[in-house]
Q: What sequence folds into this?
C-alpha cells in the first residue's frame, strides 16, 4: 500500500519534472539542435518563421530529457527548496511534508546523492537555545525523509542556530524566512 | 522618711516615659537605594594621559554599581587639582559628595605614576593615599588596583577590577572569541579558531576556556589552555556539541550533545573525554550551569512544552522546575553566592534578564536596557551581572534594576559574555 | 523651644527643582539652605530669611508644626531611587501617635538619620540584614559614643551605616523626659535594608 502510493507520487513528480524540464528546454534545444549542422545559416534560420521550429524540436526533443543538464537543474531546485517552521517549533506542517516528498523523490531517482540538512532559527530567542532548536528542525526533516524511505546513511544534519539568517532584516517577514531547514548536496 | 523618698523615686520613674526604664530602641529601615556620590576633580599631569585615566576611573566607579560620579561641572573647582585644600571640605559636602578622589599623573620615560588620594567626607579623613607605578602600556593595571583599594577602603567590598569577561565579537560576518577586563578595557581576540566561534566559558581557575567552533564544519566543542595556548577537541560528535560549563572541581564539563537523537545534557571528563548522559527526555535539554559547590545544576528544558529553568540535585538526579512565569525562560547561570540563578526571560516578545532564588521564590525581572537582553553572567562576588543586549553591546547591572552601564565601545557586535573569577 | 541644627553636611544639591517642588501651591513654608558668615551651614525648619538667621532666638515652633515640616522633608526627598514596590517604610511621623515630646523627638532623629544614610544598590538582595549600633547622646544632643554592637555579617552593609553615622555629631537635644535622672541617653539603633525588592 505504501509502495503503491509512493510509486504514484514518484510518477507524478517525475512527469512534472518531465514537463517542466521539457518546457524549459524548448528554446535551448532548438538552438543547440540547429546550430551544429549549419553554423552560418543559423541566425537566418532563427529569425525565420518560428512556427516551423516547434515541429523540428518535437522530433528530437525526446532524448535530451534524460541528459545531465536536467540533473543539474534538479539539484538546483533541490537545494533551493526549503521548509519553514513556526516560532519555537520544530514540527512539520503539510506544506513542509509536501516539499519533503519532492526532495525524497529526487533522492530516490539519484541514489548516489548524499545530503546535509541545515536547521536555522530567527534572531529572536536566545543563542544557546536556538542552537538546540535548529538541530531539532534539521532532525524533523531528516526523520521524515527516512520515513519516506530514504536511507538514513545518506543524510547528515547540522544546526546553525540563529547564526546564518537567510534574510538579515529585523522584520516579521525576514524572521519567517529564517525559521527554516534547507538542503545541501554533498560532494558536488 | 526613707519610705517617702523611695515612693517619690518610684513615682518619678513610672510617671515618665517608659523608655527611660531601658535603652531607647530605634529602628531605621532604608527607604530605597542610593548610590554613594564621589567627587573627582580632573587629575593634574600631562594632558595626553590624565584625560584617559580620569575617564577610566569614572567608568570603573560607574561599573562598580555602588558609586555615582558627580559631574565636575557642578564643582566649585572642577580642577585639575591634585589635592583638596583644608577647609574647603564644606564646599564638597555642599554638593553631596560622600568621597573625594584627587589624583596626579606623572610620566618618566616609559613609566607612568599615579598618585591618588581618597577623602571620606563624613569623617573628614583621608582614607587612603597611594602611589601606583606602571609601564605606559599597562596603565589600566594601576587604575584597576586603585579602584579595588577604593572599594575595600570605602565599603569593604571585594575586589573586582582584576576580573575578566570573555565574549564573542562579530565583525565582517565572522564570530571570534576574546576577552577584556570587566570594565571593557583591553580587548584581546583569539585568532585561528575558525570563522564561527560561540559559547565561550571560563574554568574556575581562569586558566582554560571551553568554546564551540564550526572549524570542522560542525558545531564542535574545544578546550583552549591559556597557559600553553594549545587547543584540543573535546567532542566532535554528530549533531550539536555546545554550551560548555565547567564543574567547580575543574575536572569535568557539562555540555549539550544530540547524538542520542535530541539535545541532552552530558558530563564530559576533561582527561578521558568520556561522556555520561545526565538528562533523558524527549525534550530539548541545554544550557547547564553548576552551583558554586558543584552539588546542583541549573539547566533549560522544554519538557513541559515551553523552555523553562530547572534545577537538578546531582546526588540523586532529581529535577525540580524553578520558573513558572513566562513562556520562554532560557540560559540559566548560577550566582557565585549559590542562592540564586539569573536567566533570560521573554514576556510579550521582550527579552530581559531575570533572577530567581534556588527554591523557586522571588522571581524578579530586571528592566535592563529595554532593547532585548540575554546571556547573563555574574560578577565574582555575585553583586553584579553582565549581559549582552541586542544593540551589540555588553552591559553591567546590579540585582535591583538600576540603569545598566555599557562597557563595550561599539567596535563590533558583542555577545555571550562570561565573567571570570579574580585572575591572579 | 529648641532649634534644629545640622552642621557640615547637606545631602541635596540645592536646585530649582528641589526647592520649587514643595512650593507648588501647598502654601507650606519651604526648606532652605542658608550660609552665614561663620562658614557654618545651618538648616532650619520653618520660614527662613536672612534676618532670622542672624537672630539669636528662633521663633517658637509647636510640635504639630514640626510634624508637618517633617512631612515636607519626606515629600521633597526626590533624589533617592526607590524600588517599584517598596515605598517608604513602616515608620512615618504619623505613626508617632500622640504628640508627646518623646515621640516627636524620635521621629525627628529618624529623619536626620534617613537623610544621611545612603544604602547603595549593588550590594545584596538580602532584605533580612540587621546591624545595631549603640549611641550615647548627651543632654545637649552631642553624640558622645557610637559603637557597632551587632553586625549584620555583611561588611558593606555595616559600613554604609557607619559612614552615615560618621557624619552626625549632634542631634536635637532629647526631651527632658528621656534624660531625667541621668545626663545622657542611650540608644540602640538598628538598621535594615529596604523592604522587599520585587
A:
Amino acid at each position: 500500500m505504501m509502495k503503491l502510493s509512493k510509486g504514484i507520487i514518484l510518477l507524478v513528480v517525475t512527469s512534472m519534472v518531465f514537463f517542466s524540464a521539457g518546457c524549459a528546454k524548448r528554446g535551448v534545444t532548438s538552438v543547440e539542435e540547429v546550430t551544429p549542422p549549419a553554423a552560418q545559416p543559423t541566425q537566418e534560420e532563427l529569425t525565420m518563421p518560428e512556427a516551423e521550429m516547434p515541429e523540428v524540436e518535437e522530433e528530437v526533443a525526446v532524448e535530451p530529457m534524460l541528459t545531465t543538464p536536467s540533473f543539474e537543474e534538479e539539484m538546483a531546485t533541490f537545494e533551493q527548496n526549503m521548509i519553514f517552521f513556526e516560532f519555537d517549533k520544530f514540527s512539520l506542517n503539510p506544506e513542509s511534508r509536501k516539499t519533503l516528498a519532492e526532495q525524497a523523490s529526487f533522492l530516490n531517482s539519484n541514489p548516489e546523492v548524499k545530503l546535509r540538512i541545515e536547521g536555522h532559527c530567527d534572531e529572536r530567542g536566545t543563542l544557546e537555545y536556538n542552537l538546540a532548536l535548529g538541530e531539532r528542525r534539521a532532525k524533523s526533516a531528516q526523520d521524515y525523509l527516512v520515513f519516506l524511505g530514504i536511507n538514513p546513511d545518506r543524510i547528515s544534519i547540522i544546526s546553525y542556530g540563529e547564526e546564518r539568517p537567510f534574510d538579515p532584516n529585523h522584520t516579521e517577514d525576514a524572521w519567517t524566512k529564517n525559521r527554516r531547514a534547507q538542503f545541501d548536496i554533498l560532494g558536488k | 522618711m526613707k519610705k517617702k523618698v523611695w515612693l517619690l523615686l518610684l513615682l518619678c520613674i513610672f510617671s515618665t516615659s517608659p523608655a527611660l526604664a531601658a535603652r531607647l530602641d530605634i529602628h531605621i529601615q532604608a527607604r530605597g537605594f542610593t548610590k554613594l556620590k564621589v567627587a573627582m576633580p580632573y587629575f593634574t599631569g600631562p594632558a595626553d594621559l590624565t584625560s584617559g585615566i580620569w575617564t577610566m576611573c569614572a567608568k570603573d566607579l560607574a561599573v562598580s554599581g555602588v558609586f555615582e560620579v558627580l559631574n565636575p561641572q557642578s564643582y566649585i573647582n572642577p580642577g585639575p587639582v591634585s589635592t583638596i585644600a583644608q577647609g574647603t571640605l564644606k564646599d564638597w559636602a555642599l554638593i553631596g559628595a560622600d568621597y573625594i578622589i584627587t589624583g596626579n599623573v606623572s610620566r618618566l620615560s616609559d613609566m607612568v605614576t599615579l598618585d591618588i588620594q581618597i577623602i571620606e567626607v563624613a569623617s573628614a579623613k583621608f582614607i587612603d593615599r597611594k602611589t601606583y607605578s606602571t609601564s605606559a602600556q599597562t596603565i589600566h593595571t594601576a587604575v584597576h588596583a586603585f579602584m579595588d583599594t577604593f572599594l575595600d577602603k570605602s565599603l569593604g567590598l571585594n575586589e573586582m577590577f582584576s576580573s575578566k569577561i570573555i565574549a564573542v565579537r562579530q565583525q565582517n560576518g565572522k564570530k571570534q572569541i576574546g576577552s577584556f577586563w570587566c570594565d571593557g578595557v583591553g580587548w584581546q581576540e583569539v585568532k585561528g579558531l575558525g570563522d564561527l566561534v560561540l559559547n565561550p566559558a571560563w574554568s574556575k581557575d581562569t586558566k582554560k576556556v571551553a568554546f564551540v567552533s564550526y572549524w570542522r564544519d560542525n558545531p564542535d566543542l574545544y578546550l583552549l589552555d591559556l597557559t600553553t595556548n594549545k587547543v584540543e577537541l573535546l567532542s566532535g560528535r554528530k549533531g550539536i556539541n555546545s554550551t560548555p560549563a565547567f564543574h567547580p572541581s575543574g575536572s569535568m564539563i557539562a555540555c549539550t550533545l544530540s547524538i542520542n537523537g535530541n539535545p541532552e545534557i552530558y558530563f564530559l571528563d576533561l582527561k578521558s573525554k568520556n561522556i555520561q548522559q545526565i538528562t533523558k527526555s524527549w525534550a530539548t535539554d541545554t544550557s547547564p550551569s553548576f552551583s558554586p559547590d558543584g552539588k546542583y545544576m541549573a539547566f533549560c528544558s522544554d519538557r513541559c512544552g515551553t523552555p523553562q529553568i530547572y534545577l537538578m540535585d546531582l546526588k540523586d538526579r532529581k529535577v525540580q522546575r524553578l520558573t513558572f512565569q513566562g513562556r520562554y525562560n532560557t540560559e540559566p547561570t548560577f550566582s557565585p553566592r549559590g542562592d540564586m540563578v539569573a536567566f533570560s526571560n521573554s514576556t510579550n516578545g521582550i527579552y530581559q534578564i531575570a533572577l530567581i532564588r534556588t527554591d523557586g521564590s522571588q522571581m524578579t525581572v530586571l528592566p535592563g536596557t529595554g532593547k532585548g537582553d540575554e546571556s547573563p553572567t555574574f560578577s565574582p562576588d555575585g553583586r553584579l551581572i553582565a549581559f549582552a543586549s541586542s544593540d551589540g553591546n555588553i552591559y553591567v547591572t546590579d540585582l535591583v534594576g538600576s540603569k545598566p552601564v555599557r562597557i563595550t565601545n561599539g567596535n563590533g557586535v558583542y555577545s555571550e559574555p562570561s565573567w571570570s573569577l579574580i585572575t591572579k | 523651644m529648641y532649634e534644629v541644627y545640622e552642621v557640615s553636611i547637606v545631602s541635596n544639591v540645592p536646585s530649582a527643582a528641589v526647592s520649587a517642588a514643595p512650593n507648588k501651591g501647598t502654601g507650606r513654608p519651604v526648606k532652605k539652605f542658608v550660609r552665614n558668615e561663620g562658614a557654618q551651614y545651618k538648616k532650619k525648619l520653618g520660614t527662613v530669611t536672612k534676618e532670622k538667621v542672624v537672630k539669636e532666638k528662633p521663633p517658637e515652633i509647636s510640635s504639630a508644626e514640626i510634624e508637618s515640616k517633617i512631612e515636607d522633608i519626606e515629600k521633597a526627598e526626590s533624589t533617592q531611587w526607590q524600588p517599584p514596590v517598596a515605598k517608604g517604610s513602616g515608620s512615618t511621623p504619623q505613626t508617632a501617635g500622640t504628640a508627646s515630646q518623646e515621640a516627636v523627638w524620635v521621629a525627628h532623629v529618624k529623619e536626620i538619620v534617613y537623610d544621611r544614610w545612603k544604602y547603595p544598590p549593588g550590594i545584596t538582595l538580602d532584605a533580612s540584614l540587621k546591624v545595631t549600633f549603640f549611641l550615647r547622646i548627651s543632654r545637649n544632643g552631642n553624640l558622645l559614643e557610637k559603637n557597632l554592637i551587632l553586625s549584620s555579617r555583611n561588611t558593606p552593609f555595616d559600613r554604609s551605616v557607619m559612614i552615615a553615622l560618621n557624619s552626625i555629631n549632634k542631634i536635637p537635644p532629647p526631651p527632658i523626659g528621656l534624660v531625667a535622672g541621668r545626663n545622657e541617653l542611650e540608644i540602640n539603633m538598628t538598621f535594615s535594608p529596604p523592604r522587599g525588592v520585587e
The longest helix of chain B spans residues 47-63.
